[in-house]
Amino acid sequence: MSELQSNGHPGLIDPTTISGPIPPAFSLTANNLDKVIKYKHNAEGQNSVVAREKLPRGSHICYINTYTPTPQSTWSSIQTSKTTHIEVLSGIVYINHSCSPSIDIEVYPPNSEGVYVNGTCGELRVVADRDLEAGEELTFFYPSTEYISPRPFTCLCGAESGVCIGKQEGAHFLANSILEKYFLNTHIKELIAERDNKAKV
Ligand SMILES: C[S@@+](CC[C@H](N)C(=O)[O-])C[C@H]1O[C@@H](n2cnc3c(N)ncnc32)[C@H](O)[C@@H]1O
Description:
single chain; Flavunoidine_N-MTase; three-stranded antiparallel beta sheet; Beta-clip-like; alpha+beta; SET_dom; binds S-adenosylmethionine; SET domain-containing protein
């Protein structure tokens, strides 16, 4: 397996490079996720993450405490500010994108010295407008953290026509009329404002 595919973690396999069920690279005890989630292979053999128990809308799921900063975005990284990214070293990496997401990921940017305060760089919460059912897949809206995704993909989230964005390539490529329907992190709102101001000049 090449370093590029595994993004520095030897067990992590890019799901677009092989067919069939992929063994998860992380024990569910990493980031103490064993009480809240289970792994499940989806129809394509890719990994996904489902809830062990029902959780009420808006409720806290976990903080992101197990990660390593990465200099650039990859197919598996999460953007934590306008300029910073992390590789998540836990089952959180297997949370797929959906255009009708069940959770929000709020990222906490590093401080001016590049340090994540208390070692925490984000929080997972159930979306504000509906409960997360036991057995339901945890999904988030990738453009809520990613401004430009390094590897766009055709979305298979299954949301109805008019809801599914079709191609997931990052917030930069989406109209405000779509973005305004979703929870967005502060760095994404700021980068979108910069995009729109540039377009006016
Ligand atoms: C960090 S991985 C998510 C976990 C992935 N399913 C796995 O088995 O490793 C991100 C990759 O999963 C795939 N993916 C995630 N959400 C998807 C979606 N809604 N439709 C199609 N592919 C998706 C894409 O290949 C994407 O680059």
